[in-house]
Amino acid sequence: MVEQRRVLAPEVQPRVRISEMETPQDKLLCPKCSQNFTQKSSLSRHSKRCFQGLRGPSRQKACLNCSRAKLRCGFQRPCCARCQSRSLQCHYTSNNPSPALHGQDSVSLESTPQHHGSRRTHEENRASGNNLSSMSMSHSETIDSSPTSEPVDLQDISLDIPEERRRQLLGVPGTPNTDAVAKHTMHFILRNLKSWPRLMALHHTRHLPPMIHRLQLSGDMPMPLANCYTLVRMWADHNKSSAGLVQDTITREIQRLLVEYHTYDEMDLLAAGQSFLMLMIMLFFGFQAPATGVAVTDSTAAEIIVSVWAVKHKLATTGLFLDSELCNRQPEWKDWVLVSARRRTVLSLHHLEWAWSLLRGYPVLTCFELGPLPAPAPGYLWRETDEQSWRRQYRDWLDLWKDGSFKIAELFYINDDEPLSVRAEMWLAEADEFGVMLMAEVNAVPESAS
C-alpha cells in the first residue's frame, strides 16, 4: 500500500481532526512530520505541539548521572541522594520537579523552618549526622498521601548500602550519644527488639514477633526460621560457661546465611531476613560482658550490618508494595501478608542498625528511603488469621482511608510542639507496638549525632 501524505505549507496552521487522518497499516500518522502512533490520544497530543513547532515534554525524570548509569534516581531537587552521596553535580533535563510527592494533609518541607519551635529542619538533620539514604526528600517536595496523584514509582526501591554509610560503619566510631531523648528512645527500641527472641523462646510459634506472620508457617517452616528457632532456644538456656559456644554457633549461622541467601526463593529469602534480625539481636545484645568475655566487638558487628544490607536489597527486589495499595483497592490476602512482612522485616533491620549505631557512637541512619511506602498496617489486620474476616476488616479500613493510606514519610514531620494531623491520629489509633516503635524512632532526632 502506498502511503499518501498531505503536503502543508509551513505557514499553514490547520485544526487537526483525527478522523480525517489516514491510518496505513493500522497506524496513525502525523500529517506534518510523518511520525507513527498507535493511540489516537497520543497522536492528538503530538499534533497540537507539532503544528505549533513546539517540542514535546521530556519523559526522562531521572537526573543525567542516574540515567547514564541506568540506576534508580530519587528525583530530589536540586541534587538527588545518589549524586549527593558521590559528590557529583546533579542535572535534570526538565526544570520541573517530579510531582510524585503531594497530597492531602501533607506538610511542605519549604514551610518546615517557619514552624515555630520545630525540632529540626531537613538541613539541620543532615548537618547533625542524621544521614539520609537514597530517597531522602528535598525542600521542594512534600509527602504523598493521595491515591489520585501521579503514582510514585516504587518498583525498584534500592536498599544498596550508600558508600558513605559503609565508610562510617567500617571506620572509627565516635562518642556514644548523650542526648536524653535520643537515649530514651534508643533503650525503648532496644528493649523491644530484645524481647522478640525471648518471645520465640517462650512461646515457639503460638505467639510471633511482629514481623513474622502465621501464614508463613502454614506449611513446613522455612529452613532459615527453623534453624533460628533452634538457636533461640539455645540462647535462652545458655549460662556463663556455654555463652561462648552459643555465640560461635550464632555467628556461624549468620555466615552460612550470607553465603546461601541469594539462592533462596521469595519465601525462604523473607525467612532469612527475619532470621538475620533475630540472630543479630542475640549476638549484639544477648550476652553479658565482660562477665562472659564473649561480647561481640564493634568492628565485627559493623561488618555484619554492612553485609546484611545486601540481604535487605535482595529482599526489596522481591517487592515492597502492591499496585492495589497505591490505587486504594483491596489486595489479595496472601499477597498483602507477604509484602507487609517484607516491609516490617526491612524496617526492623533499620531499627536494629539505628539503635546499635546510637549506642556505639556511630552516626545514625533514618529510613527516609522507605518514606513513600505505606506505614505499618493496623494491628488487627496484621494479626488476623482468617481470610474472610480479614477481607471484611480490610474493606472497612479502606472506607476510613479513602484519601490514601498513611505513608511512612508522614511520620518524619511530626513536631513535639504541634498537634498531630487527623491522618496521623487515625493511623496511631490503629497502630500496634510495631507502629509505635517506628513513630518513636523517626521522631527522635539525636542532638549530638556526629
UniProtKB/TrEMBL annotation:
Residues of the Zn(2)-C6 fungal-type domain: 62-92
Region of interest (Disordered), residue spans: 99-153
Keyword set includes Nucleus: yes
InterPro entries, per the entry: Zn2-C6_fun-type_DNA-bd_sf, Zn2Cys6_DnaBD, Znf_C2H2_type
Superkingdom, natural source: Eukaryota
Positions with biased composition (Polar residues): 105-115, 127-149
Keyword Zinc included in the entry's annotation: yes
C2H2-type domain span: 28-57
Key words, A-Z: Metal-binding, Nucleus, Transcription, Transcription regulation, Zinc, Zinc-finger
Gene Ontology molecular function: DNA-binding transcription factor activity, RNA polymerase II-specific; zinc ion binding
Pfam families, A to Z: Zn_clus
Protein name: Zn(2)-C6 fungal-type domain-containing protein
Originating species: Coniochaeta ligniaria NRRL 30616
Phylogenetic lineage: Eukaryota, Fungi, Dikarya, Ascomycota, Pezizomycotina
